[in-house]
Amino acid sequence: MPATVLHREQQATRRWHPATEIIVLACALLLVFGIPSPVVPITIIGATLITATVSPTVRLRSWVIGVGVVCLPTLLVLCVVQGLFYPGAEVIVLWQLGPARLTVEGLAIAVQIWLRVAALVSLCALFGLGADSARLFDGLRALRLPTSVAYICASTIGLVPLIRARTQQIVEARASHGWDVSSWRVRTTLLPGIVTGLFTSVLIEVEQRHEVLEQRGLTESTAATSLQDHSDGPDQWLLRRGVPIITVVLVVCSVAGVLPLPTADQLIGGV
C-alpha cells in the first residue's frame, strides 16, 4: 500500500498545474478556430493522441471511444451535406451521380469543419477524463475567476459520475420490475422518465452543495486555498504567460496572411 500511494504521488507531481492545463486548452482551441488551415487541428489531434497514450490519468480506450462516438457520425453528416450537395456554381467536380456531386470546395469545407470539431472533442475529452472537480476548481481559482464561476464549472465535471451512477440505478430498478432494458425500443420508451428523474436529482444535488458551501463560508472574499497539492514552478509560470502570447501572434499572422500554412482547398486540390 505505501508503494501504491508513493506511485500516485509521483504521478501527480509529473502533471501540470491545473491552471496551466486550462490555459493550454484555451490557447489550443483558439488556434484551431483562429487559423483556417487543417494543419493546425491535425497537429493538435495528434498531440492529444500522444498525450492520452502516455498520460497516467487518462485511459486511452476511454478517450478513443469518446472521440469516436462524437466525431464519426459528424464526419458522415458533413461529407453528405457539404461534400455531395455543396450549393456553389463554379466548383471542381470530382465525382457526380444524379443531383449528388462530390466537389473540392464542398469536401474542403467538410474536412475543415470536421477537423475542428474533432480537435475540440479530442482536447475536451483529454481534459475531462484527466481532471476532477477539485483540480478544475483549483485551476480556475488560481486564474482569479470568481468563486461562484469556479464552483459552477467544477460542479459540472463533478456531476458526470453522479449522472452515470443515477442512470445505472434507474435502469437496474426498471429491470427488477420486469422491463427488458436490453432492448433499444424499451430504453427509448424509458428515456423521458430517466431524463426527468436525472434532472430533478441533479438540481437537488446542486442545491445541497450550494448550501454546504454557504454554511462553510465560501464566498467571493474567501482566500484562494487549493483543495489539492499541485506541482508548480518557474517553468510553468513562464508557460502560462508565454503560450497565450505565442497563440495571439500566430492568429494575427494568419489573419494578416503571413503564416504559410496550406488551406483545405489547396491540400485537396493538390491530391
Automatic annotation (TrEMBL):
<keyword id="KW-0812">Transmembrane</keyword>
<protein>
    <submittedName>
        <fullName>Cobalt transport protein</fullName>
    </submittedName>
</protein>
<feature type="transmembrane region" description="Helical">
    <location>
        <begin position="106"/>
        <end position="131"/>
    </location>
</feature>
<keyword id="KW-1133">Transmembrane helix</keyword>
<dbReference type="Pfam" id="PF02361">
    <property type="entry name" value="CbiQ"/>
</dbReference>
<feature type="transmembrane region" description="Helical">
    <location>
        <begin position="243"/>
        <end position="261"/>
    </location>
</feature>
<dbReference type="GO" id="GO:0005886">
    <property type="term" value="C:plasma membrane"/>
</dbReference>
<keyword id="KW-0472">Membrane</keyword>
<dbReference type="InterPro" id="IPR003339">
    <property type="entry name" value="ABC/ECF_trnsptr_transmembrane"/>
</dbReference>
<dbReference type="InterPro" id="IPR051611">
    <property type="entry name" value="ECF_transporter_component"/>
</dbReference>
<feature type="transmembrane region" description="Helical">
    <location>
        <begin position="143"/>
        <end position="164"/>
    </location>
</feature>
<feature type="transmembrane region" description="Helical">
    <location>
        <begin position="22"/>
        <end position="51"/>
    </location>
</feature>
<feature type="transmembrane region" description="Helical">
    <location>
        <begin position="63"/>
        <end position="86"/>
    </location>
</feature>
<keyword id="KW-1003">Cell membrane</keyword>
